[in-house]
Amino acid sequence: YDLTRLFVGSEGTLGVITELTLRLYGIPEAILSAVCPFPSVAAAVDTVVATIQAGVPVARIELLDEAAMAAVAAFGKLEGFRAEPHLFFEFHGTARGVEEQVAQVREFAAEQGGTAFRWASTPEERSKLWQARHAAHYAAMATRPGARVWATDVCVPISRLAECIAETRADLDRSSLTGAMLGHVGDGNFHVGLLVDPAQREEIAEASRINDRLVQRAIAMDGTCTGEHGVGYGKMDFLIAEHGEALSVMRRIKQALDPDNILNPGKVVRV
What we know:
By secondary structure, the protein is an alpha+beta fold. Helices cover 43% and strands 17% of the residues. The chain has eleven helices and seven strands. The chain has helices spanning 3-8, 41-53, 66-75, 95-111, 123-129, 131-134, 136-142, 161-174, 201-220, 238-243, 246-257; strands at 30-37, 60-64, 86-93, 118-120, 148-155, 179-184, 189-196. Strands 4-1-3-2-6-7-5 form a seven-stranded antiparallel beta sheet, sandwiched between helices. The protein is globular and about 55 Å long.
């Protein structure tokens, strides 16, 4: 049994971690960041798919859709960022290795209409370039003062990512709520942030409906109900559709390691 992964992935329902061993890595010889707009989310995702299939070892690939980019540009008063889908890249390695990675990714991006790259190599320049991605949550909140962000996420095979994002955007466009999408698209994971007034029951119900459809869509595409937010309480019911009888095994493990059900009771697995 891989007990480390079992405990780390249990959201505190199987035990308490009291000691950690860290493995340290040296800072890469060369680090280069880049941002590039695309004519559509599909074009951006197709660039990611081509990059992954070619085995290019990009350290980070982040996607912000047009709604997210519009919000962060207004919030941070960032010049030069248009309300178009953008990919944020970071390349690590030797100077020659990074140069080769960049050349390949630029070629893939150009094929999808992404040519207006902005580059940054110094720590200060990289931090400024990534500011848009890091401020996305607060930027979304600023578009509707007083609202809260209902955050959810899913993960799907990279080959279905563009389709899943497109269907989700269509769902959002038909909704009375506004929302933005962003994600760590290198592994098929993306997030949806819905702006909701907690005092309005109909908005909570609408957000729940969109979330349910999003998760069902991801599972139907052989994905998972959560990419990194965890199952917690909110996505427990989706595990039945995703894992079926495997839940019975998880429940028995929970009962064996926590017979009194005192570790995050009622979370992830019902006992």
